[in-house]
Amino acid sequence: MDSNIPEVLESSNSENISISSSPGNNNSSASSSSSAASTPSRYENQKRRDWNTFGQYLKNHRPPLSLSRCSGAHVLEFLRYLDQFGKTKVHTPICPFYGHPNPPAPCPCPLRQAWGSLDALIGRLRAAYEENGGKPEANPFGARAVRLYLREVRDLQSKARGVSYEKKKRKRPPAPPPPPLPPGDAS
């Protein structure tokens, strides 16, 4: 790849990665039209940056790819490319610290993108694809291969750290208290 490839940054939440377009690729047209009336949320800004970066990745791909020809395999290639910017130590099975959540010493195991970061990134790109005119049934970010890859990364990182990723349980609103009993009906 060449020097026009995006730079990967870490957002304030270490569970998410942020990818931003190369410096000369500022997209100010969207922000100038909405000015102070309705500023986009952090999520919307992140989604736009991720979308622009994926577009840049496709443009720099050899041979260059159009979005319409992009498949789940290209998305996997993009995710593997992002691994080089990762900050999460993933122990290999031969490492003495494999399965330890807090290793006592440094080791030569590779740094990778965290599963949660990749999962969030794919969610944003999946939404952006459809917002930019893509058909849901043709969405490469929702391809079976991408889902399987994310599951594999999650399982591998879970075993390497000795920590399981549990699905977050939805918090249900507390049940309303029972109505008070009428006076004299204290049975």
TrEMBL record:
Any one GO MF annotation of this record: DNA binding
Keywords, ordered alphabetically: Developmental protein, DNA-binding, Nucleus, Transcription, Transcription regulation
Range of residues in the leader sequence: none
Amino acid composition bias (Pro residues), ranges on this chain: 174-187
The keyword Transcription regulation appears for this protein: yes
GO biological process annotation, one example: mRNA transcription
Protein's recorded name: ALOG domain-containing protein
Organism for this UniProt entry: Davidia involucrata (Dove tree)
Phylogenetic lineage: Eukaryota, Viridiplantae, Streptophyta, Embryophyta, Tracheophyta
